[in-house]
Amino acid sequence: MHEILTLQLGHRANHLATHFWNTQESYFTYDNAQAPSPVDHDIHFRAGVGARGEETFTPRTLIYDLKGGFGGLRKWSGLYDQQQLDDEQGVEGAKGIWDGNVVLHADPQISQSDYQRSLDEGIPNPQALSTQTVRYWSDFNRVFYHPRSIVQINDYELNSTLMPFEKWENGEELFVSMDVDNDLLDRDVRGLAEECDQMQGMQIFTGGDDAWGGFASRYVEKLRDEYGKMPIWSWGIEEEQGKGQMAKQLLRTINAARTINEMARNASLYVPLSVPAIQLPPYVHLNRDSEWQISGLLSMALESMTLPSRLRPDEQRRGLLGDIEAALNVNGNQRIAQLQCTILDPETELPRTVNGYASHDDRAPSDTIHAMIKEDDVGLINSHLDMNLSTGNRRSLTYASQHDTSDHTFGAVENTRGRVQEARDQELDEDEINYARKRRRLAGLSVVERYHSSLQFPLLDSFPRIFSMRPNPAELAVHTSLSTTTDISKRVKALQKLATRMVGLDEREALSNGLGEISEAYEEGWNSGSDEDSDD
């Protein structure tokens, strides 16, 4: 069935993943009057049996968070109870040898949000969600999780000032200590993995510039030892550049450098994620202090980009994680990619402008593919992708940034979701496209792997109202791109330069050399014509 196993590491990652799971839940169809969903739900969901013997369908995921990070979410939902899980695991209730009085001391429970309460009672939400009412990621959650998916870490507390969980080495040490005590792969991962018939890979949501980066790096290292060549995609969420005190910014930057260095060795693909510090398109109104809104924007692009990996093969062209990864990693060691996206006008599927209507002169995706067949110097479609959601985009760009001709793109995978493009795709000859793609790859030119789905991105009541468009849409046509470019080398070089000055002597050389090797992977075989490093 080509299942995908998900790991969610940390509070920011769980905000992002909650939006992701809410979107997957919206694709389910429950009556014969609705058309079957093009999404294969078995890829991300697992079947089970609930407390009352009813069939359940819960996400194939593991959710790690610190003490206090789960909000009002309960480990035991209405689907399961403690006794049932004990029976499944072969655990018998045993009485302790102490026969005296027992006094139970429990932390005060965090109350459910009004939104969660309305979902449980099956009534309309009394008020729309807002930045004031969303306190935790569980406040806007729409799905049930299996109890074994919930993993609370009690060594640290969320937002603690006494023991802040912010240094990379804190996360590394935490994973090592937990793994020594429990063997996390045996306790948490193996059971979910063995339920899969033909797992296509794993996706990991994690913080990329805090302690969770260290935790995730060690986790991915152990997963790689266990699962060999299986695709392991990691999405590292980073704080917006220039936000917070200078000391905090430097700490986050060093953390990000360590995470990239480790992920480039062990993950199949690592994609840094953050809201760009530059101006966003006029149709995006984002509260940069709201994790709910930030993760909503990132999730829209991430979910749209990975949509081909969970489509039914008989519906539309499916792109498994391994297929997408192969198109990006052109030279064999390009494991870091950047994510870009734009919202399209639903009538024309061209980029939107200030007033919400398409007016760009950029070619439509199908026009670009036709041009790729006829010529060798055609530019990529990136010129009209107006949001770069991967960090390192430090240049002063307007919202409708044009493609920098000094940058070279090695490989790009693009996905368009909308209904207009489907008719255009029927005009394209797949054999011609494949021939053109091979010819360009052999010539060292940019290669575009392209997918399309008529399934648009749904704007649920749990999704923040961050888009201003007329009329207000219920779903969005979205164009997304993952690409490996020379721009990644620029960011890694900047991290290398900073690490050389800021990191301790004991790891300075190893980190600097590792980042240098990563940077060179995005320069080999390409001469941009720049005289930046010339001695003339």
UniProtKB/TrEMBL annotation:
Pfam families assigned to the protein according to its UniProt record, in alphabetical order: Misat_Tub_SegII, Tubulin_3
Its biological purpose: Involved in the partitioning of the mitochondrial organelle and mitochondrial DNA (mtDNA) inheritance.
GO cellular component: mitochondrion
Top-level taxon: Eukaryota
Keyword Zinc-finger tagged: no
Organism of derivation: Cladonia borealis
Protein name stated in the entry: Tubulin nucleotide-binding domain-like protein
GO annotation (BP), single: mitochondrion organization
Top-level taxonomy: Eukaryota, Fungi, Dikarya, Ascomycota, Pezizomycotina
Classification via InterPro entries: DML1/Misato, DML1/Misato_tubulin, Misato_II_tubulin-like, Tubulin/FtsZ_GTPase_sf
